[in-house]
Amino acid sequence: MNALKEGLIKKSNYLVMSEIELLEEAVDFADKAHLGQKRATGEPYITHPIAVCEILLEYNADITSLISALLHDVVEDTHVSITEIEQKFGKQVSNIVEGLTKVEKGKLKKEEYSAINTEKLLSASVKDIRVAVIKIADRLHNMRTLAVKRVEKKVPYANETLIFFSPLAERLGLYKLQKELEEIGFGYLNPPKFKNIKKLINNYSNIFVDIFNNCSKEIQKEGGSLIVDLEWSQIPLYKSYSLLQEEHDLSELFFIKVITSSKIDCYTALGVIHKLYKPLAHQMTDNIAIEVSPFLKQINTKVVINNIEVNFIIQSERDKNMNDAGVFGLLKKGLTEGEVKTLSRNLLGDSIHTVKSITKTPIEFEELISFELLQKELTVFTPKMDVVLLPEGSTIIDFAFSLNTQLAKRMSIARVNGKLQPVNTVVNNMDIVEILTNIKEMVNPDWLNHAKTSKALKEISELLRIE
User: Looking at 19, 24, 25, 77, which residue is catalytic?
Assistant: First the structure.
């Protein structure tokens, strides 16, 4: 235990002395609470919260996150109460631990028990995003030690990781954790396909390294001091498998990242790349000017090099650092409870609150929130190029109610990319949608059959006065 504690403190060298003392106190408190408990691996239970804390230390997490990680199972698995946590470590830590503590199962069925805990977790996360962050780190450590579980438990656990925890990690910009979650999860879910895809990608990476090395020399020569750094990477394995299933080319799974010193230089770097290599039409997206995520402020483009299509990502140093830090780039030291709540709501949106208001059971909540919060997100534009973000599968009805309820309730038809379309049409990424209206309200009960988002469903029901 002493060695584990010493290793933890050594990794926390970015903290001030008073915070390190608090961290030591939390380690001792958790160790005493879990005394005598063992994990399925046979190790003392305290090794798990320490491992979760170490995952967060890699992100230079704040002291509140670290203490909460160490105590995350204390109330659920020991005699310690939330009141004791609050008295010892303060209200913020006790609120996070409470959000991470599962309800008592009692006679609840497995599906209902899972749904209740999902609703509790997300409801707490929208107040303090650190609840979700610690749960993701907790899941990652459990995935790393999944081998000790019985075979019949491994596949459902891995599947839940891929459909819930991986997209949640992505939403919070925790891309390194997402990648590992997906790789371990896919390995358990389908070992033969995992092995084949990994071999296929590893073989292509040898080709891509040559492309990258040649490009690096040419771009640095042309761009000079403009280029701070170049690196290459690939899309996480499970996502790569999904793209290959959709018949995407292997080249689409790899990209070259060009780092510049400022946002303005990103546009100059784009010019350098397009000067050196032939750009492909309609493949450039500017998420610096049009922000879709605080963690993805970048320009994407695709060019042809020696008859191979190559993806480029262009970022400033500052935005790359945010990309690497994820949510911890926003969880600055000393944030008040109100500031944390605002940040949490900005990251998770209003979906959790809205879905809770229109669903009657935790299972209904879990089904709708999975679509709304964890589905791939589309960027849809108004004619003025304002951005509306929607889950994949959304319709023009969802777009209209997300944009403006007063406009939506008078909607008769729409133009999508200049062509007239009925309002139940499913929108696609990068569509430009113009809502055409009448003077009177046009709300139709049939819209409820085509609306997918909770905001649209709620607004339509209220406009129709449906109880």
Answer: 77
pLDDT over 60 (residue 466): no
From 288, 281, 282, select the one nearest 267 (Cα to Cα).
Answer: 288
Q: Which residues contact 465 (CB under 8 A, 6 or more apart)?
A: none
Question: In this structure, are residues 102 and 110 in contact, taking their beta carbons and an 8 Å threshold?
Answer: no
Q: Can you tell me the distance from the alpha carbon of 398 to that of 460, in angstroms, rounded to the nearest whole number?
A: 10
* Catalytic member of 76, 229, 231, 462: 76
Q: State residue 35 phi and psi, 5-degree precision.
A: -55, 130
Residue 386 among the catalytic residues:
no
Among 401, 416, 410, 417, residue whose Cα is nearest residue 450:
401
71 near 56, Cβ under 8 Å? no
Q: Is 76 a catalytic residue?
A: yes
- Cα separation, 401 vs 422, in Å, equals 15
Q: How confident is the model at residue 467 (pLDDT cuts 50, 70, 90)?
A: very low
Six-digit token string for 466: 């449906």
For 211-264, the pLDDT digits (tens) are: 999 999 999 999 999 999 999 999 988 889 989 999 899 999 999 999 999 999
Local confidence band at 94 (pLDDT 50, 70, 90 cut-offs):
very high
